[in-house]
Amino acid sequence: MDNYFKNKTKAEVLFDLSKKKINFIVPKTYFFNVGEWKNNRETIIKKIITQFKEFKVKSVAIRSSAIEEDNENSSNAGKFTSELRIPLKKKQLISSINRIIKSYQKIKKKSSYLKNQILIQEMINNTSLSGVIFTKDRDTGANYYSINYDDVTGLTDTVTSGQGKFSNKTLFIYRSAYSQIRSERFKTLISAVKNLEKNVNDDNLDIEFCLTKNLVPYLLQVRKITSSNNLISSFS
């Protein structure tokens, strides 16, 4: 089975998926690497402000997209800085981007430093549910969807940051029992997940998501489960 994620950064995966007809909506995105930022900072800032204002976006999330961030052996999740709810103002954008780049100083492979990317992503509002879905049990490979979620704060980062008293809810859904889900929000969410699995031909996924109050599912990030070498795929 081909690895859809091989040799792709977080930003590149999302960009590719945005061109596919999937049930998840991929937020408006723009990305560039450290080298481009150092050489063309003013041009990049203008593109960010123009592009996102065109889509009536009021604020953005600025995320890391390092070359070594997502791979089959380790995700390095949380190793680098993320900046959320940043207004489309030149000063704030520059400061946030520079903080992301500064966090890349932890990277051991200095030769690839300039190739590491910065992902600018539309900030999704009107959120009713957010969190992370593992499409298999990470430790055993058991056929359960494991959903860690927050359905109280309306924020998109409480689960991934591990902060907040509403970030520790977990729901397990047996993969073969999808048709028995009664909750409309989780039925919508799992339907989008199953569709994503088919599009990437992989059912060992680690998915960061949010769901709006109108039950619109957004895909914030997706990668292979890092312990996937121990999992058995149900795809033939």
Main β-sheet, spatial strand arrangement: 7-6-5-8-9
Cα distance spanning the termini? 8 Å
- Number of DSSP helices? 5
The residue fraction in helices comes out at: 25-40%
Sheet/helix structural class: alpha+beta
Report mean pLDDT, rounded to a whole number.
Answer: 89
The radius of gyration over CA amounts to 18 Å
SSE string: HEHEEHEEEHEHEE
**Coarse shape:** globular
| pLDDT < 50 runs, ≥5 residues | 228-236
Question: What do these coordinates show?
Answer:
It is a single chain. The protein has about 240 residues and is an alpha+beta fold. It is about 30% helix and about 25% strand. Strand 8 and strand 9 form a beta hairpin. Helix 2 packs antiparallel against helix 3 (about 90-105). It is globular. Residues about 230-235 have low confidence and may be disordered.
In a few lines, what is going on in this structure?
Helix content is 28%, strand content 25%. The protein has 5 helices and 9 strands.
